[in-house]
From TrEMBL:
SUPFAM superfamilies: Acyl-CoA N-acyltransferases (Nat) (SSF55729)
InterPro entries reported for this sequence: Acyl_CoA_acyltransferase, GNAT_dom, NSI-like
Keyword Acetylation: no
Record's protein name: Amino-acid N-acetyltransferase
Domain N-acetyltransferase: 14-161
CDD domains in the record: NAT_SF
Organism, scientific name: Frondihabitans cladoniiphilus
One of the Pfam families matching this protein, by short name: Acetyltransf_1
Keywords: Acyltransferase, Transferase
Lineage, top ranks: Bacteria, Bacillati, Actinomycetota, Actinomycetes, Micrococcales
């Protein structure tokens, strides 16, 4: 993933960096309100520790994590932005934008050309060039490979019946990253 990036918001300087294993309690704290509202799926600590390398963390001026997000690679040219969550006090202060920019940079670093998300925040992702999609964005042979995955995010991406109750009302969106 891309290295640390810094920015300034109306509330002071923030930075976005790769997550550390010691950030897992902060990730749980950040996602808990969204899990309670059924906006995000909950994740056990063992799952978060096992996928910590996918996460980036936004840190506020006092050094405390104020946001998180992950990039999960599905296939050779597509990945998913997942578990994007902010501390409620930092919503509308540019933190989500900084995290998404960092995750998209990480995708470019990995040679990923398309990013998928499943979201209730359509306006936010639209501002970043994501478009609503309805149909599958992978070929039938890739679909046949992906359907074997036990990852719930992949199941959501494929719209498998076993996960539809968890995602009812979410919008499927996709962004094609510009070639640089």
């Amino acid at each position: 993933m891309a290295s640390e990036s810094k920015g300034t918001t109306a509330r002071g300087p923030i930075s976005v960096r790769r997550a550390l294993a010691s950030d897992v309690p902060h990730i749980q704290r950040l996602i808990s309100p969204y899990v309670a509202q059924r906006i995000l799926l909950g994740k056990d600590n063992v799952t978060l520790y096992g996928s910590i390398q996918q996460f980036q963390i936004a840190v506020g001026p006092d050094g405390v994590p104020i946001g998180c997000g992950a990039l999960n690679v599905f296939w050779d040219d597509i990945a998913e932005v997942r578990t994007l969550a902010l501390d409620a006090d930092w919503i509308h202060h540019g933190v989500g934008h900084a995290l998404l920019d960092g995750l998209e940079g990480a995708a470019r670093d990995l040679g990923i050309g398309r990013i998928f998300c499943l979201t209730f925040e359509v306006g936010f992702f639209t501002k970043h060039g994501y478009l609503e999609i309805g149909e599958s964005v992978v070929s039938p042979d890739v679909y046949a490979e992906l359907v074997r995955s036990s990852d719930e995010g992949v199941a959501e991406f494929l719209e498998l019946a076993r996960v539809k109750p968890n995602t009812l009302g979410n919008t499927r969106m996709l962004k094609v990253l510009p070639v640089v």
